[in-house]
């Protein structure tokens, strides 16, 4: 861990000002990902701004009939919230499929959106990694990549996004509300929030330096049957090989988002449109253009199978 | 005490303390944080500086140049140890690679430097500033690719590399039913909870190590050899060990570098491996390739059996003796086992819980399931038909010391409800789940190792036992206390047990499931000696006295132990030494594993619903801790079946998934229900305790029962562990999967 300085912000404004005035500063909330990365010197911030005491820890209704989730709402609290369980059950289920109880008690809504890949080469600083050290090369592409992404990848990077929560947020068309260092506020559709790797796999999201997530808002509930199925190598406390978030309507329609297979929560409009045609059609549409490796090609079939399981469970097939 | 004739009646048979389920006597200290582990010994070594190990970034080659200047100038740095300044070092007998590498690099993450600083963070930061230029060389990192060059290894713990009896080739060729299959198991990591850790302090030329180690005497002698100092100058203290599974059998880099670091900076130094360093810096269980051939008659009675094993290790290393059980488990006049060892430049392969059988049984017991199906015989019945009451390689002149294998099969099957199994695969369904049952034998050799102890009684009649035996979470403290209490007729509360200090008599240590039986037999021997001294003091003949209620009795006379001991107390020391009973009798532990799984018909997710087993391992000294050992081992077996695998990057020669996020071991949710039955047995040829090992038996065969249950659920026979989703769905066609 490189030496760093630390300050505790008392308000959103103070946090933004601290970020604006310190080069190399990072916000820290739950610290469940950042601290590990700092110990390994994968992340080396010079200054940490603790945002745990700036409020932003409430879940409130919006005028549009949706929900505004404060950036610092803990994963455990969000999963247990009555309104979330009633109207956005897929979000609650996705959260509970992730990490462990202890981690969910610490991890925050905003922090979860920003968690970094589990590519093993990203974690070994002696290995080349374009995400960790731009231009150094990708060790994973011809190495051990069974768990990595099959779609949305580039020649530079095949790392997967590890979040469960973000997959549900993507399914629910969430908006990410931010405040920039200069105080300017904006709202970013979640579809635009996470970036595909392209030539710049180290750029993972749309935030500008010093820009702080203040809330994530959900639109009005859409009803339907909410499902989150996470398929992994053990029953609990493991990252997804494939996960599927789905909302199924009584009319045969549905919408789908996928985790474990792409550098960002994966959603394709054509896949939603294919819902009436069944799980194979949904999978085919969702994975069009996939470029798997020999080791992770099984994720294509597994995605289709996970969808089939969901359809079977909901007695639609 | 020499143990070379079968045990007769002795005070242990009273069973007042031994054989009763006791909580572990150090349990309260452990759960309240008052049992300090090695890295926490601030009390013993205040002012310790922090060492951080720097591991090699290449798998094979040389260090071309090291530039320490930036690291030396970093804040808080007190010193840096490398091969250039460590002074002349020898090498211990037990480790294969050098614990401090350079200029030659033998494996990835081999320690090449220790950076010592005033804080952990400063040491870790400065470690990043070391500039090391490597000259990499092409290494051999792929077992399958090196298989054909594998050689016959020298004989080791598992006996000779090859064995045979009869004429296997002819008998197999003529067999009515033939099984000929290959199986693979991957490299595995011990993944114990407490990382390797040591605090080292020098006082003049005397070295003290507070460390985490299973084998005190090996640690001392290998440290002496490595540092080239007399072993009398070294004290090694390891009273609490947070798990080992074989990963802490030997002197490792944490201990050596702490000692070198403390010498370099003139103050105590503490070193712990970070979790991501453990898989590549320390030892692991080698991957194996195994071929099994079984020739049987149409009723499944085996006539010919062969088991060949390929594994890999560094030059000078040792093989994974995965054919061991095949020498003893089933009948058959014509037999062959063979081990071949390939030279690999991966990190050091060495012992991990039940070396040999743990992965050998993964193959053999699936092959037996295949034979059962080929013959149309129930898998339990098949094993009963192939039971043999003597060493089938040596013949009837070498019987088993005790072998309740058939009893385990029958009692285990009845308790599990095996009769509800549907023999035809893929026939049971519950919603989206395919259900299946599988079983496997359990088998692990019973090893015995000389073990010493001293036992004292003070004026108040309180008993103290001292031995360098370790408790690696197994319950050694408690069974040793129970043994002394039984022998001296005092309650367990009147016994203090001190372990894990090289100042105490040399014990068997903890490994190979020999520790429990051997170390308590050593305590038994010391107690016999103390009983004789007490009887002599009382003026009674030693063979006519009994010990009850803190009293030495003869007839209707009695004297309190405390009064006999007097103000100075009375001590006796002895050790148990084992004669040729292990040669005259085959000695092993037996059992039967049963498992029920559910497999999602779409996603192929495997969920173990329950595991159960029956086990015969001689006298069960403490049913509570023995059950914990078996449950833990069954869990490890389930991990081997379903998820455990170190992924080898054959380009760079290292294990890629080197942390607990990526090297998966089972969690509670993976196995909701486990049941253990101990079949009553006393083994008078194993030790005066009439006990055998039990700490490793539970892993041997457990994973095969899972594999066989998956086959029964799905009709998919996988032979390459671990049995993951990707492998199952690749075989979906023609199976019960959708």
Show the helix and strand layout.
The complex is a heterodimer of chains A (317) and B (738).
Chain A: E1 5-8, H1 12-21, E2 25-28, H2 34-39, E3 47-50, E4 59-61, E5 67-70, H3 75-80, H4 82-87, H5 89-97, H6 101-106, H7 109-113, H8 165-171, E6 175-179, E7 185-189, H9 190-193, E8 212-218, E9 225-231, E10 242-248, E11 254-259, H10 269-273, H11 279-286, H12 298-313
Parallel strand pairs in A: 1-3, 2-3
Antiparallel strand pairs in A: 4-5, 5-8, 6-7, 6-8, 9-10, 10-11
Chain B: E1 2-3, H1 27-31, E2 49-55, E3 61-67, H2 69-72, E4 77-82, E5 104-105, E6 111-117, H3 120-127, E7 131-136, H4 143-146, E8 163-165, H5 168-174, E9 177-185, E10 197-203, E11 206-211, H6 216-227, E12 234-237, H7 253-265, E13 269-272, H8 278-281, E14 288-296, E15 302-313, E16 334-343, H9 357-375, H10 379-385, H11 405-416, E17 428-430, E18 433-445, E19 451-457, E20 463-466, H12 476-488, E21 495-498, H13 515-538, E22 546-548, E23 551-554, E24 557-560, H14 561-565, E25 570-578, H15 581-584, E26 588-600, E27 606-616, H16 623-642, E28 648-649, E29 654-655, E30 674-678, H17 702-714, H18 725-730
Parallel strand pairs in B: 1-25, 2-13, 11-12, 15-16, 20-21, 27-30
Antiparallel strand pairs in B: 2-6, 3-5, 3-7, 4-6, 8-16, 9-14, 10-11, 10-13, 14-15, 17-18, 18-26, 19-20, 19-25, 22-23, 23-24, 26-27, 28-29
């Amino acid at each position: 861990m490189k030496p760093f300085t630390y300050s505790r912000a008392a308000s959103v404004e103070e946090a933004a000002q601290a970020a604006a005035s310190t080069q190399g500063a990072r916000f820290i909330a739950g610290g469940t990902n950042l601290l590990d990365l700092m110990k390994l010197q994968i992340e080396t911030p010079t200054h940490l701004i603790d945002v745990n005491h700036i409020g932003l820890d409430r879940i409130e209704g919006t005028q549009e009939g949706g929900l505004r989730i404060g950036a610092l709402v803990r994963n455990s609290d969000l999963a247990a919230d009555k309104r979330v369980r009633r109207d956005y059950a897929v979000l609650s289920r996705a959260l509970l499929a992730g990490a462990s109880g202890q981690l969910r008690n610490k991890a925050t809504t905003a922090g979860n959106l920003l968690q970094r890949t589990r590519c093993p080469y990203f974690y070994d600083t002696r290995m080349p990694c374009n995400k960790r050290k731009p231009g150094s090369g990708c060790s994973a592409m011809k190495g051990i990549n069974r768990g990595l992404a099959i779609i949305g990848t580039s020649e530079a990077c095949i790392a997967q996004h590890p979040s469960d929560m973000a997959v549900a947020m993507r399914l629910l068309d969430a908006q990410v509300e931010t405040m920039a260092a200069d105080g300017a506020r904006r709202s970013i559709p979640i579809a635009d929030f996470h970036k595909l790797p392209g030539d710049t796999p180290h750029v993972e999201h749309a935030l500008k330096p010093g820009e702080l997530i203040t809330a994530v808002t959900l639109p009005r509930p859409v009803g339907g049957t909410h499902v989150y199925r996470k398929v992994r190598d053990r029953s609990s406390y493991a990252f997804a090989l494939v996960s599927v978030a789905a909302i199924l309507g009584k009319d045969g329609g549905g919408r789908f988002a996928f985790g474990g297979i792409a550098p960002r929560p994966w959603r394709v409009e054509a896949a939603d449109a294919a819902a009436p045609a069944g799980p194979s059609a949904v999978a085919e549409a969702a994975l069009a253009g996939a470029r798997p490796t020999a080791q992770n090609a099984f994720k294509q079939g597994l995605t289709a199978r996970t969808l089939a399981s969901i359809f079977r469970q909901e007695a639609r097939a | 005490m020499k143990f070379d004739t079968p045990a007769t009646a002795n005070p242990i048979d009273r069973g007042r303390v031994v054989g009763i389920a006791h909580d572990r006597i150090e349990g309260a200290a452990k759960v309240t944080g008052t049992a300090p582990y090695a890295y926490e010994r601030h009390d013993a070594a205040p002012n310790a500086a922090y060492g951080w190990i720097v591991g090699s970034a290449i798998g094979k080659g040389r260090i071309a140049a090291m530039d320490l200047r930036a690291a030396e100038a970093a804040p808080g740095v007190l010193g840096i140890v490398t091969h250039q300044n460590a002074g002349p070092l020898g090498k211990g007998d037990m480790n294969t690679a050098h614990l401090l590498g350079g200029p030659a690099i033998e494996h990835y993450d081999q320690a090449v430097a220790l950076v010592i600083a005033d804080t952990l963070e400063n040491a870790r930061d400065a470690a990043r500033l070391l500039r090391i230029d490597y000259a990499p060389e092409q290494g051999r990192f792929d077992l399958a690719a090196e298989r054909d060059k594998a050689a016959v290894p020298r004989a080791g713990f598992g006996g000779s590399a090859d064995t045979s009896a009869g004429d296997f080739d002819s008998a197999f060729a003529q067999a009515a039913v033939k099984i000929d299959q290959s199986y693979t198991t991957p490299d595995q990591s011990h993944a114990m909870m407490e990382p390797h850790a040591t605090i080292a302090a020098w006082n003049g030329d005397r070295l003290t190590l507070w460390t985490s180690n299973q084998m005190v005497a090996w640690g001392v002698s290998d440290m002496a050899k490595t540092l080239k100092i007399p072993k009398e100058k070294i004290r090694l203290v390891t009273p609490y060990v947070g798990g080992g599974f074989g990963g802490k059998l030997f002197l490792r880099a944490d201990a050596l570098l702490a000692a070198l670091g403390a010498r370099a900076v003139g103050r105590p130094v503490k070193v712990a491996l970070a979790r991501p360093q453990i898989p590549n810096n320390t030892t692991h269980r080698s991957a194996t390739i195994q071929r099994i051939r079984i020739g049987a008659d149409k009723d499944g009675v085996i006539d010919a059996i062969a088991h060949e094993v390929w594994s890999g290790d560094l030059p000078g290393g040792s093989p994974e003796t995965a054919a061991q059980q095949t020498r003893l488990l089933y009948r058959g006049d014509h037999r062959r086992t063979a081990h071949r060892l390939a030279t690999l430049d991966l990190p050091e392969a060495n012992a991990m819980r039940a070396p040999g059988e743990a992965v050998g049984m993964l193959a053999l017991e699936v092959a037996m399931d295949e034979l059962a199906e080929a013959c149309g015989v129930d898998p339990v019945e098949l094993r009963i038909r192939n039971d043999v009451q003597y060493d089938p390689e040596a013949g009837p002149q070498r019987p088993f010391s005790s072998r309740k294998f058939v009893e385990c099969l029958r009692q285990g099957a009845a308790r599990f409800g095996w009769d509800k199994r549907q023999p035809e695969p893929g026939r049971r369904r519950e919603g989206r789940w395919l259900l299946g049952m599988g079983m496997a034998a359990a088998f692990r050799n019973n090893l015995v190792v000389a073990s010493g102890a001293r036992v004292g009684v003070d004026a108040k009649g309180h008993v103290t036992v001292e031995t360098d035996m370790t408790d690696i979470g197994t319950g050694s403290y408690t069974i040793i206390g129970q043994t002394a209490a039984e022998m001296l007729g005092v309650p367990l509360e009147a016994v203090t047990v001190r372990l894990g200090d090289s100042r105490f008599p040399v014990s068997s240590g903890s490994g190979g499931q020999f520790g429990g039986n051997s170390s308590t037999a050593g305590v038994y021997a010391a107690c016999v000696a103390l009983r004789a001294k007490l009887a002599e003091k009382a003026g009674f003949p030693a063979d006519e006295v009994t010990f009850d209620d803190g009293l030495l009795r003869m007839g209707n006379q009695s004297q309190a132990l405390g009064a006999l001991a007097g103000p100075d107390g009375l001590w006796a020391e002895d050790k148990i030494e084992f004669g040729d009973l292990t040669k005259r009798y085959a000695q092993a532990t037996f059992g039967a594993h049963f498992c029920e799984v559910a497999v999602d018909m779409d996603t192929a997710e495997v969920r173990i619903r329950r595991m159960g087993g029956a086990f015969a391992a001689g006298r069960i000294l403490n049913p509570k801790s023995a059950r914990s050992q078996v449950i833990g081992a069954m869990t490890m077996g389930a991990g081997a079946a379903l998820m455990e695998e170190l992924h080898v990057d054959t380009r760079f020669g290292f294990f890629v998934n080197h942390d607990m996020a990526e090297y998966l071991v089972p969690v509670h949710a993976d196995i909701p229900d486990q049941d253990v039955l101990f079949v009553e047995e006393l083994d008078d040829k194993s030790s005066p305790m009439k006990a055998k090992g039990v700490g490793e038996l539970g892993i041997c065969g457990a994973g095969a029962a899972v594999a066989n249950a998956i086959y029964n659920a799905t009709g998919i026979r996988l032979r390459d562990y671990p049995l993951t989703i990707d492998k199952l769905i690749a075989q979906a066609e023609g199976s019960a999967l959708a």
